[in-house]
Amino acid sequence: xxxxxxxxxxxxxxxxxxxxxxxxxxxxxxxxxxxxxxxxxxxxxxxxxxxxxxxxxxxxxxxxxxxxxxxxxxxxxxxxxxxxxxxxxxxxxxxxxxxxxxxxxxxxxxxxxxxxxxxxxxxxxxxxxxx
Length: 131
Description:
Blueprint: H1 60-64, H2 72-87, H3 92-102, H4 114-130
């Protein structure tokens, strides 16, 4: 099994528990107060950002793609749809920073696809080395 086969984080399909919270919610996420850049007002600061994420209500395959070859045209259309979900999410910047800080290799996180994140990391690296 590869890391791509294991979907973690807010992209997992929601599984309600008896108290209404997602039973599989990860405990390693930072509270909103620590990753709160770009969050909408009115979110509960005691919950981790992924508890508020819009992607929780969508199929994880939208953000990670199928477990088979995906033609480029299909991938670009799927990623555009996933990025549109991210654009409406109050946690987009927190999600993006999480993905960049943790080195997420696969999927759409915070409105950035795999290639987008690699390019941003390369830009940040070249800026850091130029300073």
